Amino acid sequence: MSSASSFADLAWREVVELHDLFVAWLRGDASAKDFSRAEASIGKDFRMISPDGKMDDRAAVLALIKDARGSRPSPFTIVARDPRTIWTGDGAVLLEYTEEQYRDGRSTRRRSTAFFLANQAAPCGVEWRHLHETWMEAAEE
């Protein structure tokens, strides 16, 4: 495995693990008591563009999620799938993936592109620096 593909694999692992944490956190699961894992993986200069075009910085995104603990009881789910490496460079990777959410009896999908930089202190060795999400048609059920 080349270092570029292994770096992309670390970033993909980060995507999956962080979304799993968000699901547990937002459901209010007893297993999700420590939000520091999320804080450790989001870079200081992080920005996110939501599917509706709103841009938020690290503090706003983390506060929104942290304050929403337990707000989405089961059967709320998030599944990240179909990873695609768009670009890799020295200590950086741009991934594209599909995020599917199920809540309140309906499914939504968004295409996401996420930019990661190497950070040995982060849980998976990469930190989120930029995330851009775009609405997609809902998956057929």
Structural class: alpha+beta
Q: How is the largest sheet built, in terms of strand order? A: 2-1-6-5-4-3
- Report helical residue fraction: 25-40%
Integer-rounded radius of gyration: 15 Å
Beta-strand content estimate: 35-45%
Summed up, the helix count is: 3
Distance between the termini: 37 Å
Please name the CATH topology.
Nuclear Transport Factor 2, Chain: A
CATH architecture: Roll
Note the run of SSEs as H and E: HHEEHEEEE
What's the total number of strands? 6
How would you state the average pLDDT, rounded? Answer: 94
Enumerate the spans where pLDDT stays under 50 for 5 or more consecutive residues.
none
Q: For the record, what CATH class applies?
A: Alpha Beta
Number of structural units classed as domains: 1
Biggest sheet layout = 6 strands, mixed
What does this structure look like?
It is a single chain. The protein is an alpha+beta fold and 141 residues long. The chain has one domain (3-136): Nuclear Transport Factor 2, Chain: A, CATH 3.10.450.50. It has 3 helices and 6 strands; from the N terminus they run ααββαββββ. It has a 6-stranded mixed β-sheet. The longest helix has 25 residues, at 3-27. The protein starts with a helix and ends in a 5-residue tail after the last strand. 18% of the residues are buried. The mean pLDDT is 94.
Annotation keywords:
alpha+beta, Nuclear Transport Factor 2, Chain: A, six-stranded mixed sheet, 3 helices
Can you lay out the helices and strands and say which pair or pack?
Blueprint: H1 3-27, H2 36-41, E1 42-49, E2 55-57, H3 58-67, E3 77-89, E4 92-103, E5 106-118, E6 126-136
Parallel strand pairs: 1-6
Antiparallel strand pairs: 1-2, 3-4, 4-5, 5-6
